[in-house]
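Contributing new records

If you add data, match the layout below exactly. Sequence lines come first and carry their own label; structure lines follow with theirs. Keep one chain per record. Anything else will be rejected by the validation script.
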Amino acid sequence: MTREADVFVLKMTAEENRFNPEMLSAFDSALSEVEAADGTAAVITGEGKFFSNGLDLEWMGANPERIGEVVNGLQSLYGRLLAFPATLVAAINGHAFAGGGMLALACDQRVMREDRGFFCLPEVDINIPFSAGMSALVQSKLTPQIAHEVMLTGRRYGGADAVRVGIVDLCVAEDSVLPEAVGAAEALSKKSRDTVVTIKRTMYSDALELLSEQVDLSGLG
């Protein structure tokens, strides 16, 4: 993690940036550092071709007894991001698939690369139904029509299409993704944290309640 003035930049650097216990622990530590620094905001980004490709299915296959730990840990992360007391902007540098797409949606704003990379929730095609919490997260950030399309078709959205349907706020050239995200975060870094978190907890109360519940893994495989 680095800092640019009042904006922390949380960069995922694990190739496809899939979620496993190590990744979740790193997020927990980084977010705690941001929370401890009042008057700041944060940007979440990746590097290379991937923003995040979702759950680490290889790790989960090798550690089946800990699948619940990762899935529920990811839900907890989404809940923490959704009600985070500071502004969070996703700088989507590359592919944002499945859990990575939902990571971006849990942030307050999204800036996406315009020429390469896709946003996609492919759960319908890999036969993994959304948990109630994850479904509520998606539906809290997208219009009913687009949430339906995103979740039930598995469609891939490039930058321009993602802006058109409201998945992301802006798409720009590759070298402008991070600067634009940092600028957006900086512009909102001085908002009262008490007010921000109260608004978010009220606005997203239904999704937050469902994300706090333990996932029934029998419906996800």
